From TrEMBL:
Enzymatic class: lyase
Family label: Belongs to the DNA photolyase family.
UniProt entry tagged with the keyword Lyase: yes
UniProt keyword Flavoprotein, yes or no: yes
Pfam families: DNA_photolyase, FAD_binding_7
Protein name in UniProt: Deoxyribodipyrimidine photo-lyase
The enzyme's E.C. designation: 4.1.99.3
Alphabetical keyword list: Chromophore, FAD, Flavoprotein, Lyase
Location of the Photolyase/cryptochrome alpha/beta domain: 5-134
Domain of life from the UniProt record: Bacteria
A single MF term (Gene Ontology): deoxyribodipyrimidine photo-lyase activity
Needed co-factor(s): (6R)-5,10-methylene-5,6,7,8-tetrahydrofolate; FAD
Length: 430
């Protein structure tokens, strides 16, 4: 039986058809292109069956599939071990070329090395492209070629190197006729082994971007863009988003640069996934009290801003950025629970969970990361509440019982602050 000679485009963290660099190049192949997505068991097996992020991925793929129908094509969706899926596809088709966009996380790097070896063994040519960042891991470095570990000089060099005129938009629509003509069955969420979640990813919006620097610290003001999950899964183009930010708000652009800073930190220093960037902090004697951790997770610490943030996270999968700093500092400093516990909880709950940013921000809050807040900086949750939610609008939204005699704080701030500073000071290795 003759097998079709085809190319594949492998969707991963780039769930869109337009301005997708890898797809743009794939569609110029001399072979018809099969668009593919693999639900990877290595990732899915650890997730709850109602994981909202899987639902969002499924919905995004369904939209892609509907768009592909207009060109007589469809999306091939598979579920299983990635290596097994590719072995199966190479058996089923005469796979000449495979195109995909790079992923810089440690697991993805190892996975792609393994998959590319399969391609090589079967005389399949693979092509990878930079798509989810403006500058990847080795493009913004110090003069000696070493990576930056402090944000501000990284940002300055990033801004000096960025030129919107050279950042192209990749129009894939003109090549849609080169999609493989097909009607692959599109699986339901249940067929993948998941069920719909009540938690949903919100559409992104730029309505508050022009005043972002004035409103970004006030959680009661609904001025956030809700862009982060869309960047995480690539339903939007980073080139388009950065171009918009560069024209409209420098502070918002800085937040997008932080994203790339943490991504290159993870690439160059993969130990930060589980270990302190600053090994001098390895001697800290954490309390790691499980009951205290449960109260933090459930939003019952007695500190309104901490509790409102955790309840928002648990109910919606979102948490305001200012509040993230407060709840993270509280866990690490007030309760002396090591950052890895909080990082893992956020990884389970956040719709915009991104390994590099999550690890980077948790280590920033704990004081153990690169360019982190100093260990003696301990946020006072009550002062943060007065500064950023003076009228209590945010806390009343998430703590309906607040005016009915809210509980006492589980730990005294002054005592906890002194204890944290003393513990850090005693534990920092000379």
């Amino acid at each position: 039986m003759t097998k079709f000679a085809v190319s594949f485009f492998w969707f991963r963290r780039d769930l869109r058809l337009q301005d997708n660099i890898g797809l743009f190049h794939a569609l110029q192949s001399k072979y018809p292109v099969i668009p593919l997505f693999i639900f990877d068991d290595a990732i899915l097996d650890s997730l709850p069956k109602n994981d909202a992020r899987v639902g969002f991925i499924h919905d995004s793929l369904a939209q892609i599939n509907i768009a592909l129908h207009k060109s007589g094509s469809s999306l091939l969706v598979k579920k299983g071990k990635t290596q097994d899926i590719w072995q199966e596809l190479i058996t089923q088709f005469d796979v000449k070329e495979v195109f995909f966009n790079k992923d810089y996380e440690p697991y993805a790097i190892l996975r792609d090395e393994s998959i590319c070896q399969i391609f090589e063994n079967n005389n399949t040519i693979s092509f990878s492209f930079k798509d989810q960042v403006i500058f990847e891991e080795k493009e913004i470095t110090k003069e000696d070629g070493l990576p930056y570990t402090v944000y501000t000089p990284y940002k300055n060099k990033w801004l000096a190197a960025y030129n919107k005129e050279t950042v192209l938009e990749y129009d894939t629509t003109i090549y849609y006729s080169n999609f493989f003509k097909s009607h692959f069955p599109f699986p339901s969420l249940e067929q993948i082994g998941f069920v719909e979640s009540k938690i949903k990813v919100k559409p992104y919006s730029f309505k508050g971007i022009t005043t972002y620097q004035d409103t970004r610290d006030f959680p009661a003001v609904d001025a956030t863009s809700y862009l982060s999950p869309h960047l995480r899964f690539g339903t939007v183009s980073i080139r388009e988003m950065v171009g918009f930010a560069a024209q409209n708000n420098a502070v918002f652009l800085s937040e997008l640069i932080w994203r790339e800073f943490f991504m290159q930190i993870l690439y160059h220093f993969p130990k930060v996934m589980t270990q302190n960037f600053k090994s001098a902090y390895d001697g800290i004697q954490w309390r790691n009290n499980e009951e205290d951790f449960k109260r933090w997770c459930s939003g019952t610490t007695g500190y309104p801003m901490v509790d409102a943030g955790m309840r928002q996270l648990n109910e919606t999968g979102y948490m305001h950025n200012r509040v993230r700093m407060v709840v993270a500092s509280f866990l690490c400093k007030h309760l002396l629970i090591q950052w890895q516990w909080g990082e893992a909880y956020f990884a389970e709950k956040l719709l915009d969970y991104d390994l590099s940013a999550n690890v980077g921000n948790w280590q920033w809050a704990a004081g153990t990361g690169c360019d982190a807040a100093p260990y003696f900086r301990v946020f006072n949750p009550d002062i943060q509440l007065k500064k950023f939610d003076e009228k209590g609008q945010y806390i009343r939204k998430w703590i309906p019982e607040f005016d009915l005699g809210y509980g006492k704080p589980m730990v005294d701030h002054a005592m906890a602050r002194d204890r944290a500073i003393a513990t850090y000071k005693a534990g920092i290795l000379k």
